[in-house]
């Protein structure tokens, strides 16, 4: 030993991890066993005094647990960590308190152990001592600052756990130290739970001495976190002894806990008859309702406590009381199959057929839950076996849905209709087939259910079984007379449905029973089309093996291969090609599958088609090759592939446009470079003379222009009308492109066939920056057109003030001014009027759409009409036989291609969905457009207009039934306005505006809806109009035309007439015209009610006043099946008498007094008549301003 010790002093001792672990374990073992000498030996070595086992227990923990006071004292004297915690958060003080070792607890506290430290779940040393009944430890901890108010995570305090465990001495100690009563809860609840009257009395004995205990009615009515009082707890367990004590101490027998639950609800729910009687004897309210509307009788009936039900009924409980959802106690009894409770309720005259808010009877509920006994009782008492719920479901439907075969048998025995239908036309067999309940399907068929009955959508049970992938049901139905090729409303057969879902087994099964493999839907889709769309190659394989035709086209001209190409279904496309499908087959408008695959950017399908000899040169109806589409859509990979397969880069469309034209217009630089590298003609001209450079100039695609110039593109090439790229850029206001072309030596004074230079073009369009740029580059301001007009003359004619200010100082030549009554025609360069394949998700839309659509009608049909004054007389002279006057009027006609004209349009559509109270989905659609027209006067006003359109909800079935719902069409200009009451077949207009003393009103001064404001500097107008009429039974008879009453004058007016202003007075310096015209017609109705709907003029119509002309007719735009409505308005106003020199005075001549007029675009909505009557509320609003 000595030698070993000497060696240890001269050599370094190396211990392995296992040796260290063994040493620590021995140390902990010695501490646990109370072997002080061994503990000291370990501590003399390298053992850590705070080392612990995997659970976190160290030597101090173990010694404290086992009560080894001497070891605890030694460890503390050597610096053991008194606050070290186990993995569960327990310190040595927790452990000693739990074990009840008072000496060790004392020792630990003296060494500063924290008496209120909470372990996991909130346990304190005091809680642990209380739990085990160590009263002396409890007393010591309380004397040293332990807080008995600290509770565990579940809300238990030391007092509560002591009560629960029955440690009376500990309870007494704790109560003695709880002078303020702060910790007596949930102790009282625990006493109530245990029916511990003694403890409860002890807890309540000093309550009257504490102010805090008297809050909320005192401790006896205080609640835990769950919201229940001690009386609720006593009621739950039926502890009448403690309940009596609580009631004697003024417990509130009607106290509402969370959700308004009273003690009587609790006692009834748990069937505590004695408690129920006690509470009722103590004046508990027998019909008190919870937040959900449950009475104590509901609670007892739902739980099947027949004795409590009987007691409550005998003591006057209302048997017809309903919950918020309309459930009666009988519904509750039916739900739980509590036959005796149901019998008692029926004995007390409860209604057999009482319904919920969803029109469910007790029999519906019993059927839903499969409760045969209660269902039989109800049927024996003659309840209605075919009662219909809100959606038309009968008890038999519900039993079929929930697979309650015994209830089905019972219902049919008692006369339930096997062919009853829901609102959507579902029979019980439909429901069972869809749900896949084979035993019920067989039973229903055995009882002569018709497998071919159709729903309102035309679907049979076989359709629904196919939709739900119920193969066994399909087999049963087919063996029992189901028509294999039954067609639904859209002509779908079950085979179409199976093909869409990709269920090969069902497809085979249907085909084996003779299903027509090439049956077509309303849109001429075969099952093979549908399989191609969904990518179900196995289904397609089966269909083709059964000789499905792969060249049948849909209504819009697509074969299955087109469909596979559109949706990128590679496997189906390959299968079709293997089966002999023609890769170049042409659909509508001459589109081949390769066109379609290119348009939708499915490069893998395009590759497959090309590998199978699809022609890259195939042309559509408009002459487009696949390369044209790839160029426009920027499909770089497909374009490269097409060129590799020999596509011609200079292929021309029907109008002479090449792929390079399309790529240049769209600004696709990579495609442009690719095409030019493959020898595309950089100066290729379309039939109207447009080159790629023209189109790049039109769209301001400078990066494309740079590439074109690099490949020797001409910058001064002209179209048939003589337009150069610079003309085009100037017309469309593309100042960046203008600068680029001028930098590349474009001719700044080139002229068109009608003598227009780029400066003329820019002046005509009002592009200030372009005009300035041209002048800086030596453009001639004195050049005249073929009809003698200078750029300045054009700008003055169109009212471009800023352009006039730039041109006037530099113009020396006086242009020829056209007569004021002449219509000025905007001169525009050619544009590419091509058509492209639609991006529509289905083929329901046209496969081709016009390029560059604008809001409303094409721009070539848009006109801005400018009536004018001569003195006090405004020239219109509108003819009755023409909506657009041919007499003296000043107007601008915007020609096709003038999309960068003074009319700047935008379109936005937003669709939102919400749910009405009748649970039907409604849509709100808003369409808005903002427009700005420039002034038509040199010093005149700017005109701004803003439009909003809204259509609202459809009528609910209830509104439809009572026939009293009114429909409102509103026309609204924001501002001060008055409204007209609903349900009046009249139209009222009110407006207010301001402009000093000289401002006149279009109505008489005594008009009740007229208001006036005064503002010397600004003319504004606010207009509100409402017209309302009725749908349904109270609608006007359609035998005679509907007419409205003009309340101002007493005149009546009908369709084709307009509200116009009062005659213009000599002292009135302006005029307003508001036109609102309507057409009425009837639409088919499924009821006996008359139906009234309105149709208004189509998009972009200008209707002029036709006052006092009762014979005026307007074309009926109503369709027999679709109701449409649109709105057209005209507004015109002259500037008021000027208050400053920049206002043009009335009487200074027609040229000076012209003013702007606006013809509002219309909006149309339509709806399917299957969607029940519709209540639409269109709103058309705008604001009008005259600016200095």
Automatic annotation (TrEMBL):
Record carries keyword Repeat: yes
Annotated Low complexity bias: 1155-1167
> What's a Pfam family this protein contains?
Ank
Regions of biased composition (Basic and acidic residues) lie at 952-968
Q: Does the keyword Repeat apply?
A: yes
What is the designated name of this protein?
Answer: Ankyrin-3
Could you tell me where the Polar residues compositional bias lies?
1058-1070, 1078-1092
Task: Identify the InterPro entries for this entry.
Answer: Ankyrin_rpt, Ankyrin_rpt-contain_sf
Q: Provide this UniProt record's keywords sorted from A to Z.
A: ANK repeat, Repeat
Q: Which Gene3D superfamilies match?
A: Ankyrin repeat-containing domain
Q: Extract the ranges annotated as region (Disordered).
A: 952-1016, 1032-1107, 1131-1188
In this chain the ANK repeats are located at: 55-87, 88-120, 121-153, 154-179, 226-258, 259-291, 292-324, 325-357, 358-390, 391-423, 424-456, 457-489, 490-522, 523-555, 556-588, 589-621, 622-654, 655-687, 688-720, 721-753, 754-786
Cellular component (GO) terms are: cytoplasm
Q: Which residues cross the membrane?
A: none
Please tell me the species this chain comes from: Elysia crispata
């Amino acid at each position: 030993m000595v030698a070993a010790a000497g060696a240890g002093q001269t050599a370094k001792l190396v211990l392995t991890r296992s040796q260290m672990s063994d040493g620590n374990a021995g140390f902990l073992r010695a501490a646990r066993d109370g072997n002080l000498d061994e503990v000291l030996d370990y501590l003399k070595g390298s053992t850590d005094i705070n080392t612990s086992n995997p659970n976190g227990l160290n030597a101090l923990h173990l010694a404290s647990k086992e009560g080894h006071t001497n070891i605890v004292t030694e460890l503390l004297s050597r610096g053991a960590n008194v606050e070290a915690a186990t993995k569960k958060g327990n310190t040595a003080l927790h452990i000693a308190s739990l074990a009840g070792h008072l000496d060790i607890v004392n020792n630990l506290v003296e060494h500063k152990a924290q008496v209120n430290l909470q372990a996991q779940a909130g346990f304190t040393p005091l809680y642990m001592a209380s739990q085990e009944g160590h009263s002396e430890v409890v007393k010591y901890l309380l004397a040293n600052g332990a807080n008995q108010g600290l509770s565990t995570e579940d809300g238990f305090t030391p007092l509560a756990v002591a009560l629960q465990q029955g440690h009376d001495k500990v309870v007494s100690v704790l109560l003695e130290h709880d002078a303020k009563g702060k910790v007596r809860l949930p102790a009282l609840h625990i006493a109530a739970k245990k029916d511990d009257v003694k403890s409860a009395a002890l807890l309540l004995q000093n309550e009257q001495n504490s102010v805090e205990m008297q809050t909320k009615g005192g401790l006896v009515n205080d609640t835990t976190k769950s919201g229940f009082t001690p009386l609720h707890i006593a009621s739950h367990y039926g502890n009448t002894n403690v309940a009596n004590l609580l009631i004697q101490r003024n417990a509130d027998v009607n106290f509402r806990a969370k959700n308004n639950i009273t003690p009587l609800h609790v006692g009834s729910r748990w069937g505590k008859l004695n408690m129920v009687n006690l509470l009722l004897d103590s004046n508990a309210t027998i019909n008190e309702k919870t937040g959900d509307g449950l009475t104590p009788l509901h609670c007892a009936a739902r739980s099947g406590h027949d004795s409590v039900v009987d007691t409550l009924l005998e003591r006057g409980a209302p048997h017809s009381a309903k919950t918020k959802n309309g459930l009666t106690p009988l519904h509750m009894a039916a739900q739980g199959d509590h036959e005796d409770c149901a019998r008692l309720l029926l004995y007390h005259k409860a209604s057999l057929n009482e319904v919920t808010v969803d029109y469910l009877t007790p029999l519906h509920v019993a059927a839903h839950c499969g409760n045969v006994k209660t269902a039989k009782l109800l049927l024996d008492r003659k309840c209605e076996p075919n009662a219909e719920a809100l959606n038309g479901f009968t008890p038999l439907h519900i039993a079929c849905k929930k697979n309650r075969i015994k209830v089905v048998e019972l219902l049919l025995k008692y006369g339930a209709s096997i062919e009853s239908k829901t609102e959507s036309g579902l029979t019980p067999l439909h429901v069972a087939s869809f749900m896949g309940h084979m035993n019920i399907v067989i039973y229903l068929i055995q009882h002569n259910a018709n497998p071919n009955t159709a729903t309102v959508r035309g679907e049979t049970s076989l359709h629904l079984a196919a939709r739900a992938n119920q193969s066994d049901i399909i087999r049963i139905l087919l063996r029992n007379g189901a028509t294999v090729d039954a067609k639904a409303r859209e002509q779908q057969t079950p085979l179409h449905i199976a093909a869409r879902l990709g269920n090969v087994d069902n497809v085979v099964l249907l085909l084996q029973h003779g299903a027509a493999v090439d049956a077509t839907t309303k849109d001429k889709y075969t099952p093979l089309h549908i399989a191609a769309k969904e990518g179900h190659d196995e289904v397609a394989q089966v269909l083709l093996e059964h000789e499905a035709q792969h060249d049948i086209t849909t209504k819009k001209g697509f074969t299955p291969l087109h469909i596979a190409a559109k949706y990128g279904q590679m496997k189906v496309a390959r299968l079709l090609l293997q089966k002999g499908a023609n890769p170049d087959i042409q659909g509508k408008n001459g589109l081949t599958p390769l066109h379609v695959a290119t348009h939708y950017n499915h490069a893998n399908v395009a590759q497959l088609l090309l590998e199978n000899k699809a022609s890259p040169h195939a042309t559509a109806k408009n002459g487009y090759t696949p390369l044209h589409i790839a160029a426009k859509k920027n499909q770089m990979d497909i374009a490269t592939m097409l060129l590799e397969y020999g596509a011609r880069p200079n292929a021309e469309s029907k109008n002479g446009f090449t792929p390079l034209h399309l790529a240049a217009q769209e600004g696709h630089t990579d495609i442009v470079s690719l095409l030019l590298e493959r020898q595309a003609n950089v100066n290729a001209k379309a039939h109207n003379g447009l080159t790629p450079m023209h189109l790049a100039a039109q769209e301001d695609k400078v990066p494309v222009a740079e590439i074109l110039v690099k490949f020797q593109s001409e910058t001064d090439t002209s179209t048939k009308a003589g337009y150069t790229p610079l003309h085009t850029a100037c017309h469309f206001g593309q100042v960046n492109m203008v600068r680029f072309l001028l930098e590349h030596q474009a001719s700044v004074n080139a002229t068109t066939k009608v003598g227009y230079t780029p400066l003329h073009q820019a002046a005509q369009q009002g592009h200030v920056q372009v005009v300035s740029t041209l002048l800086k580059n030596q453009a001639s301001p004195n050049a005249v057109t073929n009809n003698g007009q200078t750029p300045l003359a054009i700008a003055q004619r169109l009212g471009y003030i800023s352009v006039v200010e730039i041109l006037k100082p530099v113009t020396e030549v006086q242009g020829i001014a056209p007569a004021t009554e002449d219509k000025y025609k905007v001169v525009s360069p050619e544009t590419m009027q091509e058509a492209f394949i639609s991006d529509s998700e289905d083929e329901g839309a046209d496969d081709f759409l016009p390029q560059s659509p604008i809001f409303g009608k094409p721009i070539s049909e848009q006109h801005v009409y400018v009536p004018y004054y001569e003195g006090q007389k405004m020239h219109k002279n509108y003819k009755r036989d023409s909506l657009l006057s041919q007499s003296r009027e000043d107007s601008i006609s915007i020609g096709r291609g003038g999309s960068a004209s003074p009319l700047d349009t935008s379109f936005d559509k937003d669709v939102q969905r919400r749910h009405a109270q009748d649970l039907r989905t409604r849509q709100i659609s808003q369409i808005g457009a903002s427009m700005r027209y420039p002034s038509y006067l040199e010093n005149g006003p700017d005109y701004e207009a803003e439009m909003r359109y809204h259509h609202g909800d459809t009528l609910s079935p209830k509104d439809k039934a009572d026939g009293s719902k009114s429909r409102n069409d509103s026309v609204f200009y924001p501002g001060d306005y008055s409204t007209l009451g609903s349900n009046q077949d009249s139209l009222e207009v009110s407006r207010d505006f301001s402009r000093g003393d000289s401002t006149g009103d279009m109505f008489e001064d005594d008009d009740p809806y007229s208001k006036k404001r005064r503002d010397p500097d600004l003319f504004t107008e606010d207009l509100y109009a409402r017209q309302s009429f009725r749908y349904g039974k109270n609608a006007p008879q359609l035998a005679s035309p509907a007419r409205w009453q003009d309340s101002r004058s007493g005149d009546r007016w009908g369709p084709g007439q307009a509200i116009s202003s009062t005659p213009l007075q000599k002292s009135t310096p302006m005029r307003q015209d508001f036109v609102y015209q309507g057409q009425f017609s009837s639409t088919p109705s499924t009821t006996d009610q008359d139906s009234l709907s309105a149709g208004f003029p189509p998009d972009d119509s200008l209707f002029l006043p036709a006052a006092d002309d009762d014979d005026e007719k307007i074309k009926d735009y109503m369709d027999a099946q679709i109701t449409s409505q649109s709105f057209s308005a005209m507004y015109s106003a002259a500037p008021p008498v000027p208050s400053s020199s920049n206002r043009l005075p009335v009487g200074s001549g027609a040229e000076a007094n012209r003013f702007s007029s606006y013809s509002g675009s219309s909006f149309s909505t339509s709806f399917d008549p299957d969607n029940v009557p519709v209540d639409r509320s269109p709103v058309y609003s705008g604001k009008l301003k005259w600016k200095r």
